[in-house]
């Protein structure tokens, strides 16, 4: 026992030592020749495009590149994607790289890391160009936090003028794009200049690892801050040819809170000045060939929606019952049916698989918590799932029409979902086609026995004594 | 020969309603010896009867689905929202929680004991249907169950009507009654899909109880009497209209006693039904001990004791065998009983043990009572006396068939027909007093009219059939020596009779088809709009939907604090609690007149006075309905005079003449000064005619719906003193 513990300890220690060695080697090995960062603040989802030109100055080949984020940003980070660019300008091709969160022991001020695994090891003296895209949600802080109907919505954006990085950056520039030219104020870190909707920080030369220079941009952003606090999507497979989808939304306007009077006169007579940060339409992009669409809430059907379909896509424009001002909430349900053959396929090993899109069909919305429930038909076995990003999953059982043993439900949960997550995922399962007939046969036999019972009742005389009139008649 | 003619008679059924019986009779005459054929006809008759009943059953259900098809599957009107909310609670929390439910969301700050102040029959019925369906793995939503409960029970009512008709007349009349009641607008008005109200199941329970009681009286069977007691229990649990049963049945018994139709059958039926029904009814908390304590139920008790005395006297008469002695005994007993009864009633009333009649009961007996004494009852449109036009609207040809049916009933007087006559006459009187009681009269009117229709058509077809038979026999057989004399006899009256009968039959069919068309039209046009969603035709003929109520309620539900109190006129109380999920000050269960008057007072005072009242009631939001922009007529300003009247009934500060100009009610520029300045006016006509530029000091607009129908105001917190 003692020995085992000792062995473990030594193992842990050696790993720790190795890791620390690794990090130091990283910092020494790699430097960034040129970094360009473009921050897009036009909607309420902050998109950051980062182009890094990385050089291996060390001796050993490098397999990985680290990205560092301040802890405040990591909580709001929805997506981190990296691509390696190869080839010259016009023939540039991109290869998607693997990005994983990682922990490093000696991170200063609790900085968090993502590790990009390179496809080919970067040899000494070689350079590579990496394109990184990451998205932040809930990173625009409304200030003032409460506005009246006639005021525009102003928000803060916090970041650093200098890219946080564990490596030395030779040269770097940051561009921030605001939705309009109305910028109240911004922190100056020279050289800084502003041309209409674009702020430029830099170029800055030779910044040491973990340099940080906080900036605040205060600007006007009247885009709809549509946030779905909770979205439950239920996908029910019926082998009679239908895929039924039910989506429960809890929508909130996450912008500056509305205060004081809501005046319908103002709102209707001067739509360009009154309540400009509010929204009343939402657009849901649904798959083509969608049918029997409904849009309702707890108290009934909502009559204000339009559906446009063509052969490539369907667009459902929905209006909540009332325009959403800051802090106002609305809940609703959207349901629709889809032809099964568009989504259900048979794999080579005889299994069936459903290929369906993850994420929220509403355009330009953030989903704080997304739950997808895939209801497999009764009698299906061995469910398994393939999702391009990590999700929490577990199994449930649901009873629907005429179920005896219940249907297996695969539940997938993910937090902080943005439209970038609308990529397909697959659910594999085995199913015997004969089970399709189980429920109709059940109904048929139930009716059959009912009629048999009726016939039996009419033919059997249950009375204890025969009425005497019966004999008198004949 | 007979074998050949039989199938012709058996299969050719020109008129399904009455032909089975005719067929049966003619067959009896024709094929007395052929048992197999007779059985076959019987089977055919059964088949036709069952299929007609099935069709009527389906018809009754689908004719009530207009609103679901045209709008959506939703709950209508005001009261059904309360029923829906309680049903939801029942299905979620279970029966015991439901029974002990203290609802703090209504009647703030008083609250309401739901379990003890409602008739649970409807909710329990819907919940049982829901649980059964769930058990059978039908994944239905409770809302769908609630929406379709009324049509389902309407279908069941047609079956009961068939059996009732069969009991009082014959199966032909039963079939006609089923068909008539299936589409009668008077009943449809309260049982379309979505109208999830007590009446939906209560009419079924009412007719069911009556049918079982009549059956019990006809047979003298204890089993039927027991069944009718349980029917009565169901009725008591479903609707306050059970008072009608508990008064009509004693009245009927009295009439039977007076007309000398007393029998042991009646004794068994009434005593069993009354005693057991009373005990069962006491289990309903809302009814409690009313059967022994309330003046409205005393008639039944009196008749119960009278029955005992009657029985006793009968027995004594049997023992004595001496007319003179019996006369003396009779005199003493009657005087003694009447004396004891009167004293008991007097003492009971004086000591307060027996409560006097309630206002609603008085207003039934005296139509003008409510107007003078209880404005809250008079303010409800469905409590108004009925206009002739609405009788015509709801009954159509039944109004003319009703007296004809009464004639037939009197012609063939029996215990059962006496009952239906009494039911018809009393309920017609009540229908005249109050619009909503047309509903109670509908089954009786349908049954009696069915008797008229069935009897008439049967007579006519018998006439026709007799001719046919003679003609047929003549052609098939030639002129037989035995039949020639009888044929000659019949021939004399043939042309006139035959043509007259055909004309009358055609007339009857014309009338009945007119009735069917009228019913469909009324159902589709008048009774199938949910009133919570308003639909209008747009400029291009497209349908425009005003969904403002739900817009406002949903806004309340989502965007106000969960403990916010909403003040509105009482009409909207149930909807706000059910759809908005917020606490209300007053709602449609108008049990506390003072509380409503306080709200009425707040609505009709100056803003600063109203603010004091609202502060004292802890109101956060005020909801008003405003029809100014869309021209929606039933808004709060139209109800305003009632607010003034009800408010003035308790708080004499509010005087109706202050709001009138020259005795006229005006809301435009010529309105009275008090009117123009009161709170209600400010809020309902905020930007409208009469008084523009209203500045509200204590209230601020919180939300207005897209068509301006509902406006919600927030009560500002008091100014900070520092």
Task: Give a verbal description of the structure.
The complex is a heterodimer of chains A (474) and B (722). Chain A starts with a helix and ends with a helix. Chain A has helices at 2-29, 71-74, 264-269, 438-459, 469-473, and strands at residues 30-40, 46-56, 62-69, 77-86, 93-102, 112-122, 127-136, 140-142, 146-147, 154-160, 168-177, 183-186, 192-195, 198-207, 214-220, 226-238, 242-253, 257-258, 282-286, 291-297, 300-301, 305-309, 314-318, 329-339, 344-346, 352-357, 366-375, 381-386, 392-398, 407-417, 424-430. Chain A has 474 residues and is mainly beta. With 722 residues, chain B is mainly alpha-helical. A five-stranded mixed beta sheet of chain B has the order 6-5-7-9-8. Chain B is globular and about 95 Å long. The relative contact order of chain B is 0.08. Mean pLDDT of chain B is 82; it is low at 1-36, 476-491 and 682-693. The A-B interface holds A 260-265, 296-304, 321-322, 327-331, 399-404 and B 71-72, 74, 136-139, 533, 545, 547, 550-551, 553-555, 557-559, 579, 687, 700-706, 708. Chain A: Keywords: Endoplasmic reticulum, Membrane, Signal, Transmembrane, Transmembrane helix.
Give structural attributes.
heterodimer, A: 474 residues, mainly beta, 10-stranded mixed β-sheet, 8-stranded mixed β-sheet, B: 722 residues, mainly alpha, two-stranded antiparallel ribbon, 33 helices, 9 strands, globular
Task: Write the topology of this structure.
The complex is a heterodimer of chains A (474) and B (722).
Chain A: H1 2-29, E1 30-40, E2 46-56, E3 62-69, H2 71-74, E4 77-86, E5 93-102, E6 112-122, E7 127-136, E8 140-142, E9 146-147, E10 154-160, E11 168-177, E12 183-186, E13 192-195, E14 198-207, E15 214-220, E16 226-238, E17 242-253, E18 257-258, H3 264-269, E19 282-286, E20 291-297, E21 300-301, E22 305-309, E23 314-318, E24 329-339, E25 344-346, E26 352-357, E27 366-375, E28 381-386, E29 392-398, E30 407-417, E31 424-430, H4 438-459, H5 469-473
Parallel strand pairs in A: 1-11, 9-18, 16-27
Antiparallel strand pairs in A: 1-2, 2-7, 3-6, 4-5, 4-7, 5-6, 8-10, 10-15, 11-14, 12-15, 13-14, 16-17, 17-24, 19-23, 20-21, 20-24, 22-23, 25-26, 26-31, 27-30, 28-31, 29-30
Chain B: H1 2-11, H2 19-30, H3 35-62, H4 66-70, H5 79-93, H6 95-99, E1 102-103, E2 112-113, H7 121-135, H8 142-168, H9 171-183, H10 185-188, H11 198-219, H12 222-238, H13 242-258, H14 264-281, H15 290-293, H16 298-320, H17 323-351, H18 359-365, H19 369-373, H20 375-378, H21 388-395, H22 398-411, H23 415-433, H24 438-477, H25 481-491, H26 494-525, E3 534-537, E4 543-546, H27 548-559, E5 565-567, H28 573-580, E6 583-584, H29 593-603, H30 607-617, E7 621-625, H31 640-650, H32 673-677, H33 679-684, E8 699-704, E9 710-715
Parallel strand pairs in B: 5-6, 5-7
Antiparallel strand pairs in B: 1-2, 3-4, 7-9, 8-9
Protein name (chain A): Dolichyl-diphosphooligosaccharide--protein glycosyltransferase subunit 1
Pathway (chain A): Protein modification; protein glycosylation
Signal peptide (chain A): 1-27
